[in-house]
Amino acid sequence: MSTNDYVKYVTQQFVRYMDEPKEERKKRREARKQEKPPLLYHLFGMVPFSLKLLFRRK
């Protein structure tokens, strides 16, 4: 990918983002936050989840 193609792609993405209404951008941002796993699982993987299950059983 040449530099010119990259600049063209970034410009298109920016224009598409700016043409979108502010409410739609806010809704998309909130939906992305909802989809993210909790930070503890993201940082340490399945270890906290397995410990949580282990202690919940007892």
Description:
This protein is 83% helix and 0% strand. The relative contact order is 0.06. The protein has one domain. It is mainly alpha-helical and 58 residues long.
Helix and strand topology:
Layout: H1 3-19, H2 22-35, H3 39-44, H4 47-57
The pLDDT mean sits at: 88
Strand content: under 5%
- Spans where pLDDT lies below 50 across 5 or more residues: none
Give the helix tally. 4
What radius of gyration results from the CA coordinates? 20 Å
Most strands sheet: none
The gross shape turns out to be elongated
The total count of strands amounts to: 0
Instruction: Determine the oligomeric state from the structure.
Output: single chain
H/E element order: HHHH
Short key terms for the protein model shown above:
4 helices, 58 residues, mainly alpha, elongated, single chain
Outline of this structure?
This protein has 58 residues and is mainly α.
